[in-house]
Each structure stands twice: as structure tokens, then as C-alpha cells.
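Hi everyone,

Forwarding the result from last night's run.
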Amino acid sequence: MQRTIGRSSRSQLPALALLLLPQALLAPDAIAQAFPERPLRMIVPFAPGGVADIVARIVGQKMSEGLGQTVVVDNRAGAGGSLAAELTTNARPDGYTMLLCTASIAVFNPLLTPTVKYDPLRDLAPLSLVSSAPFVLLVPANSPANSVHELVALARAKPGWISFGSAGIGSASHLITEIFVSMTGIKATHVPYKGTAPATNDLLAGQLQMMFDSISASVQHIKSGRVRALGVSQRTRSPLMPSLVPISDSGVPGFEGASWQGMCAPAATPRPIVQVLSNAVIRAVKAPETAETFAGLGIEGIGSTAEEFRAFHKAEIVKWGKAIRDAGIKP
């Protein structure tokens, strides 16, 4: 009798599997509908108080409202963002961990530091490109250059005259200047600092002849007259300082570069959950109050799809990789 029951049970297994198959196929959608069931963590690769941290908290608050769960900002500064990236890539890929991804994490560190323990294209799932902010070309208040044209002409007439500061070798402020130097054909000496603040101090003192910095960080110095701004690195004028002309319209056609932030998750995060998170980020960025706050900081809200962010990321690797090779910057 027992053997008869066993054979009967085995004969029913294929039919049972067919009955369960539609439920299995629907499981990912069911998981996504139930997500999230607890608070989420957003890892930020900077200390509290900076522009990127402010962006993260604004977006995180809006995501909390949309998802019905708290988004907790976890500041993990260190190693140029590599620490935060490694924490994210090693986290459980269940959708409850996100990363505020920057150019340093996604582009500069992998290009310049062979020892990083992550591959951004392989180990991170893009959710959305959140925001972008232009750099501004600065010179001391007493500089003889009043425009990009005049600065380039002076640099060509006096080779070696220009020294420029940056936040460090391989930083965004360093690489955007190297692109400017390459496109204009001038000679300039790089002076790396440990952050933009000490570099700005030397620019104010006239010890540097030029520097690229974020418009949000430098606007107070520009408005006070302590430094002179010659142009912005995006192809349109900035709402924060609409009088500044794009550098691409000032004798350096095609020149463009920006500081940006995106949102990522661990690469193995299920696709339906990635879509839920991506939609939540997009809604948060495109909220009218978010746009208003960003504009006050000189930041443009983007809110791209995950696919658009992936394409942008790949293009950034190509662009900055060329700048690094042309400038001869070594890891």
C-alpha cells in the first residue's frame, strides 16, 4: 500500500509543478509590492554638512514620504568614497541599502586607484542620476584676466605663469582643470591640496592664478568680490549666477564638466526592487520643493531612469579616462 501511494505521489509532481509555476513567476512582483517593510539605509561617502550630504538628506526625506518607510542617512567618509562603495557592494542585495554615488566613486577611484576592491559597473546597480552642478573658473580678485579669453592669452604669453589649485591629485577639480588646460593648449602647474578649502584660501591670497570649484561652494566669495568668476563649465547659464557665461561660449568650444550625484544599490538587488527604488528617487528629485531647494544651491535636479544613468556613467568613464591619459596622471 505504501509503494502504491509513493508512485501516485510521484506521478502527480509534474502537474503540481505546473500549477505552482505561475505563482513562482509572480513572486518577484509580489516581493516588489510588499517592499519596503522596514527602514532603508542610504550610505553617503562624505561627512555631514557638505553639498552632497544635503542632497542626500533632501532626496532621502522625499523618498521616505513616497515609500512609507524612513530612509536613514549613514555618513561613511574615507578613502575618497571607496569605503562607502565597499560597504554598499558587500551589503545584502535586498533593496534596503543604497549609495549616494559620485564621480569619485564611479569614475575617478577605479581609474586612478588599482587597489580599489569594487568595480562600479559590475558591483553597483544604477537607480537614477540625481543631480548635477557646474564648476566655476575662478581667478584672484586682482588678476589681470577679466575673461576666459584674457586668461588664455596671458597664459600663452607667459608660459609657466599659471599655477592652479585642486582638492588633490585625481580629484574632480584637478581633472576638470586638466581638460581646460588641454583644450586651450596652455601650460599650467598643478598644486594639489587636501581639499578645496585650503586651495581657495591660497587663491584668495593671490598665491594661485586660477582654480575650478563648485559654484555652490564659491558663490559667497564671488558675490563678496574676493574672487572673480570667469565662466561656468556647463553649456547653459546657472540659475544661481545667470550672469556667468558658459566657458564653451568663451573661446573653448565643447568644454563641459560637472560635479554629479547618483543613487545606486548593490548589483544583485532584484530587478523589481531596483525599479521601485528608481521610481522613488525620480519622484523625490522631481518634486517641486526639491527643485526649488536645489536651485538655491546651484544644483540641477536630473531624476534619470536607471538605464539613462548607466549610459551616462559609461560616457563619464570614457571622458575622464581620456583626460587622465592626456594629462599623464598616474595611479
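The domain at 39-133+258-327 is CATH 3.40.190.150 (D-Maltodextrin-Binding Protein; domain 2).

Cheers,
N.
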